[in-house]
Amino acid sequence: xxxxxxxxxxxxxxxxxxxxxxxxxxxxxxxxxxxxxxxxxxxxxxxxxxxxxxxxxxxxxxxxxxxxxxxxxxxxxxxxxxxxxxxxxxxxxxxxxxxxxxxxxxxxxxxxxxxxxxxxxxxxxxxxxxxxxxxxxxxxxxxxxxxxxxxxxxxxxxxxxxxxxxxxxxxxxxxxxxxxxxxxxxxxxxxxxxxxxxxxxxxxxxxxxxxxxxxxxxxxxxxxxxxxxxxxxxxxxxxxxxxxxxxxxxxxxxxxxx
Length: 258
Description:
By secondary structure, the chain is α/β, with parallel strands linked by helices. It has 9 helices and 8 strands. The chain has helices spanning 16-27, 39-53, 68-82, 100-122, 149-172, 189-194, 197-200, 207-217, 222-234, and strands at residues 7-11, 31-36, 58-62, 87-90, 131-136, 176-183, 242-246, 249-252. Helix 3 (68-82) packs parallel to helix 4 (100-122). The mean pLDDT is 94.
């Protein structure tokens, strides 16, 4: 898939990895709908991108992925504005073991909502042109983070859900690829949340153990993760893949065959 001329939706696009994913898409001539619940941050990043790439290359839409209605409206406005939809990145996520039900709603249910709505627009059986969905998990989707069991659970679920969607799409002929990105610790506000005793709730005494993991795997830059994201977007041979990124490089994850 040559990215030039394509249209993307990125959730959680106002900062961190979402902003990085949006930027690398824009650098490759993709127009991007920037979805985020933080309207002020969204306006700021839109202003920055307008100066870099032109005001017609992005669209900011306030959207909380916990709301199916808001997601549906955002996807529809994207299609009305840009005419099509080719790439969807379900990136929005939080770490909050204290408000763990919200974490499940954002990290897992938000990803499911975004994926299903993306499929409605892209499915070749219903008039779509096909495309690719990249769901953002974490190294926590492959192994546990002691201080964040619910975050760990949601990210494991995102890996399993994405792989199942890829298999379903392949058998059903939807024309949509599904891949999942599993970065290690990245220099974003999420890293600060991981280190926060407040966000760890009843597991606050284990925050130091999480810090030990960051020392083991290193801390990635947003641009490093964005390059791997673009790889999953553009490589049409990849469907149902989980790409793990850490300080020593990246590798596709091998799972047991059933």
